[in-house]
Structure formats: structure tokens, C-alpha cells
Amino acid sequence: MAQLWGGRFTKETDQLVYNFNASISFDQKFLQQDIEGSIAHVIMLAKQGILKKEEKDAILKGLTGIREDVEAGKLAITEEYEDIHSFVEANLIERIGDAGKKLHTGRSRNDQVALDMRLYIRLEVLQTDGLLKELLTTLLKMMEDNTETYMPGFTHLQKAQPVTLAHHAGAYFEMFKRDRSRLKDIFYRMNYCPLGAGALAGTTYPLDRNYTASLLGFEGPTLNSMDSVSDRDYVIEFLAALSTIMMHLSRFCEEIIIWNSNEYRFVEIDDAYSTGSSIMPQKKNPDIAELVRGKTGRVYGALMSMLTTMKGIPLAYNKDMQEDKELTFDAIDTAKGCLALFEGMVRTMKFNRDVMEKSAMAGFTNATDAADYLVGKGVPFRDAHGIIGRLVLYCIDKNCSIEDLSIEELKEISPVFEEDVYGAVSLKTCVEKRLTIGAPGPKAMQEVIRMHREYLSKDWQDEDDMFGGRLNETLYREDIKK
């Protein structure tokens, strides 16, 4: 058992207790973050005169050697170590001797793991944002290609009014755009460095926490050492953002599943994103869409687990907080995998435009426009609403659409109808006369598409006032070379 503690203990830890307490099986994901944090800490200690230059050089060489050997498969992370921190420190001491024992000067595992988690989540926020941007690019292409692809819009899963596929896809564009905004907020709120907080009350060593923060690409140090080691708000916020992303994916998947059904036939999912049946040879199942929909609950579960874990924890650090990792790692991997697969499925889908248009024509989606036509002829809206209701009932009895009726039949229901009614209730007219921004009309849609293109041409990750969630390469590399 390789542990970083034990001086005040007279008995070995029970093996079951050790296994229950250990986190190496999952926190080995932090290898990169743990070594980066240790390198920055050592550079700062040497700058402050707490470590000698030769000690710093030996430690940095040892740390980079451990990272390179693990990446090359020459060094294995095994469960003889309690956690990733003990793995790194034990191997460092084995490689460079007593100088390695000074790595932990002015640091606790509490602020160390808080740093590792922050570095890890920060990077995952950026990667998730990148996947969302790819999806938005695909959705924008769908919008650009389908400004005149007519389809029914729904309320209560019943045909309501005609829209375009561009307009429908645009609704999801707005959802995923808001998701990116949430990730940006999370990044800026969490981008402060907890290293130097110690166990909970700081340290007597003259650390330069601002310098450490700058080395690691943070805006600055956290300002309360107790909060620094016990804060997991950023994990909860990220899980909440992932849950919202999954909810949006699930809603879109639900529609794709419906559109893919034999009754709708709006879309054909590419073979690469479909599966067959072991017994029914005709089947082509939307399994990817169904799995994304199903995995949404898995991400929700991680959020609820984290909220429940944190709800009763007194200040400052408690071992309960070790539970912040496994489900969070799983939720991140699940959401990122779903985003990547969903983008590929949507990008390769084929739309049956004729079927979508016929569906819009067959569902009385132009009934509201027919009522507006009567209003334009001087009929009060409430009376027009009743007239069109009777007209729809007549069409249902005859199994036809409004535009299938002759002008004589229309006049029997209301003498106000004239020949121009047919143009007024066509799908093209119903869509094109909706000109307000945010509506499906082509002029309004083109303006929204222009705004979306401009939005995607810029990237908050490129803004000058942030480090981009990476080490400050200039400071970092200069110190490494000294």
C-alpha cells in the first residue's frame, strides 16, 4: 500500500478499508492534470526561494519523465497506490531520491485534488463546447439547404401550421446555442486556482498564488481557502449543463424517431447510424437516436447524485467529496459521445421533402391562414374561427383538404370566399407571408441564417482575455528551460 500518510498510525489499514478508501481506479484520469499542477507548484516554490534550483530541476525532470513513461506504456498505474497523487509522488521519490520528498511542500491533497478536478473539468468544458459548435455548423447547413422545404409544425403532436425544415432546425440551433452560452459562463466562473489553499487554512510558506494561477492559465487564485477545497459548484453546474444538452438531444432524437417511422417517412437515417433486426429482415431501426434518448437519464442521474452528495457536507473537505469523480467522468464521456454520434447521424440523414410537404397539406395546417383570409375580407376573427371550424369538419367528412374544395363548396359555407382564397391558403403563401424576425418566412429566415453564420465565425474560446483553459505556455516553458 503506497500512501502519503501513516506516521501517527500504529496498525496497517485493513485491506477492505484501504480498497474502499482508494481512488486510483478512477482518479488516474488526472495524471496529466496532477503533473501539470505539480510542475507549476514546483516552479513557484523555486521562485519563492523555498526550493533550490537544483531541486527544482530534478523534480521537473522526474515529473516529465513519469508522464512520458506512462504515455509510452513503460510505466503502469497500478492499484498498489491509493490515488494518482501517491502514484506520482512515490515514483518521483524512487527516481530522484530525497528531492522528490519536497514536492508536497506548502500543499495538501485537499487543494491538490481540487486543482486537478478544476483543470480536468475546465478542459472538458472546452471540448464539449467544441462538439456543440460542430453540431451547430451541421444544423446551420441544414437550415441553409431547406428554407423552402415545407413541413407541418406541431403542437400537442398534432399538425398545427406550416413551417419549413429550416425553421424547425433553427429551434434546435437556438437550444444548442444557449448550451454553449452556459458552458462559457461555467468556464469563467470556475477559472480560479485553488492551489495554495492547503488542507483548509492556507499555509505558512510564502507562496505566490497569483504566479501559480498564471502558470496554470487561471484568472487568479481563489479567495477563501475553506471554500477552495470544498467547492464543487462548478462540477454541479457542468453536470446541469450536460443534462440540459442531453435533454435537447433527446427531444430532437424523439422527433427523428417519429419522423423515421413508417407512418411519417420524413427522414431516412443513414445505414451507418441504423441497425437491423435479428428476426425481421425488413427492419431498419433508429437505434442511435433511441440510445441517445435513453442515455439522457444516465446523465441526469449523475447530476442528482452530485447534488445529493454535497447537500449535507459541512466545511471544509470531507471524504464524501471523493464521490464527485466516477459519475462525473461517466456523464462527461456519455454526453460527449452522444454529441459526436448525433452530429454524424443528423449530417448524413436524408429528408423526404415531398412526403413532408404532402403531410403539411393534409393536416389543415393552413386553417389559421384561412381564418386570417376571412378577417382580411371584413369578417370578425371569432366568426372567422367558427366558419373555418365548420369548413374543416366538412373536409374531414369528405376526406379532402381545404384547397381541394371548389369555390361553390366554399361559398356554401361562407359567401365571403373568392377565387383568391386558393393562393391565400397555399403552403408557399402561408409560410412566405410570415415576415417577422424569428418566423419561417424566407426573408426572415435568411436574416437569421446570416446572424447564425456571424455567430459561428467568432469563438469565445479565442477571446483575448482568457488563457483558453491551458497552461500559460510562455511562463511555463521559460521556467522549464531555466
Would you give an account of this structure?
With 482 residues, the chain is mostly helical. It folds into three domains: 15-105, Fumarase/aspartase (N-terminal domain) (Fumarase C, Chain B, domain 1, Orthogonal Bundle); 110-358, Fumarase C, Chain A, domain 2, CATH 1.20.200.10; 359-446, Fumarase/aspartase (C-terminal domain) (Ribonucleotide Reductase Protein R1, domain 1, Orthogonal Bundle). The protein is built from 20 helices and four strands. The chain has helices at 15-21, 24-27, 31-47, 53-71, 84-96, 109-145, 165-190, 209-215, 225-230, 233-259, 287-310, 326-348, 353-362, 367-376, 381-398, 407-413, 421-424, 427-432, 442-457, 473-481, and strands at 150-155, 158-164, 267-268, 350-351. It has a two-stranded antiparallel sheet with strand order 1-2. Strand 1 (150-155) and strand 2 form a beta hairpin. Helix 3 packs across helix 6 and helix 11 runs antiparallel to helix 12. It starts with 14 loop residues before the first helix and ends with a helix. The relative contact order is 0.11. The model has no long low-confidence stretch (mean pLDDT 91).
If you compute it from the alpha carbons, what radius of gyration comes out, rounded to the nearest whole angstrom?
30 Å
Class of secondary structure makeup:
mainly alpha
The largest sheet is: 2 strands, antiparallel
Would you report the number of β strands? Answer: 4
Question: Layout of helices and strands, plus pairs?
Answer:
Elements: H1 15-21, H2 24-27, H3 31-47, H4 53-71, H5 84-96, H6 109-145, E1 150-155, E2 158-164, H7 165-190, H8 209-215, H9 225-230, H10 233-259, E3 267-268, H11 287-310, H12 326-348, E4 350-351, H13 353-362, H14 367-376, H15 381-398, H16 407-413, H17 421-424, H18 427-432, H19 442-457, H20 473-481
Antiparallel strand pairs: 1-2, 3-4
Helix pairs in contact: 3-4, 3-6, 3-8, 4-5, 6-7, 6-12, 6-19, 7-10, 10-11, 10-12, 11-12, 14-15
